[in-house]
Amino acid sequence: MAKGDVLFRQEGTLGLLDFPRDVTAQTRETAYSAYNELARAKVKTLALNFDSTDYMNSAGIGLVISLVEDATQAGRKVFAFGLASHYRKLFNMVGLMERLTLAADEQDVKTRASEPAP
Amino acid sequence: MIPPHTRTEEQQPPLSERVEIFLPSTLGYEKVARSAAEAVAEEMGFSADRIDDLKTAVSEACMNAIEHGNQENRTASVTVLLTAAKEQLEIRVADEGLTPMPAEFPKPGRTQEDNRGWGMFFISQLVDQVEITRLPQGGNQVRMVIYLTPDRKAPAPADTPTPIPDNTPTPENK
């Protein structure tokens, strides 16, 4: 019953993962596949787009944790946008908000990703 | 149906109102229980934030029942009983107990495959009461209560989130 796959886009050194309506254990395969494409392309910044997501369960959040862990360990800056307030609360509970930066939208990510590191 | 939160004292039912749902043990059907809980909570006048908390707690309890209690055996059912009372909503999620619930849940996060295991943690954080029991006829039951008025909320559990440790990631690291 899961809805959709994770898709990826690359714009220069920015990689975007577009999450589907449902983010669950069934999302795992396409999420890793999309992420690994961006990792192979050596993107420096990863943006997680949750604009289309309206259901994320604990398995889906576990998946996001794994992706964020990998990206940060590889030295990538991680942004997220489009996240509903309830999921921001759940991300905070599991410590994810300390590992990523919330952005207002995709344009905000692009602006911030192009800024030189402090 | 008169929404419970708009009823006068005289219109309040003497007994609670109940909704019972039977789910097949297939992942995804937890969303049916989630939608039902949302509808009942809206009728009762719960705030949008509390309804979001409730939906996550119900989903996670049903997923545990489907995946662990019933081992995704499609012939086994998960029973969800929603009981709306004047000031609270009680949710009971019962499985057929093909696997007993552990006496103690393992810590969520990296200790489990793919950072799984956050379900019971979320439930404990999002509802006001949670109780796990083994039913006399067999099966596991998670009983949750969420209050209409947040100031009736019971003391929060002392659980703290497990920090995400820095160790080898699951996906390829290029």
Order of helices and strands of chain A: EEEHEEHEHEH
Q: Which structural category do the helix and sheet elements of chain A fall into?
A: alpha/beta
CATH level-1 class of chain A: Alpha Beta
Query: Which strand order do you get reading across the main beta sheet of chain B?
Result: 1-2-3-5-4
- Unreliable spans of chain B are 154-174
**SS-based class of chain B:** alpha+beta
Choose one word for the global shape of chain A: globular
Beta-strand portion of chain B reads: 15-25%
CATH architecture of chain A: 2-Layer Sandwich
- Percent in helix of chain B: 25-40%
Report the count of strand segments of chain B: 5
Which strands sit side by side, in order, in the main sheet of chain A?
1-2-4-6-7
Folded structure, characterized:
The complex is a heterodimer of chains A (118) and B (174). Chain A is an alpha/beta fold. Chain A has one domain (7-114): Transcription Regulator spoIIAA (2-Layer Sandwich), CATH 3.30.750.24. Chain A has four helices and seven strands. In chain A, the strands form two sheets. A five-stranded mixed β-sheet of chain A has the order 1-2-4-6-7, sandwiched between helices. A two-stranded parallel sheet of chain A has the order 3-5. With 174 residues, chain B is an alpha+beta fold. Chain B has one domain (14-152): Histidine kinase-like ATPase, C-terminal domain (Heat Shock Protein 90). Chain B has three helices and five strands; from the N terminus they run E-H-H-E-E-H-E-E. In chain B, strands 1-2-3-5-4 form a five-stranded antiparallel β-sheet, covered by helices on one side. In chain B, helix 1 (30-44) packs antiparallel against helix 2 and helix 2 (48-69) packs antiparallel against helix 3 (119-126). The chains are: A alpha/beta (118), B alpha+beta (174). The interface between A and B is large, with 35 and 36 residues.
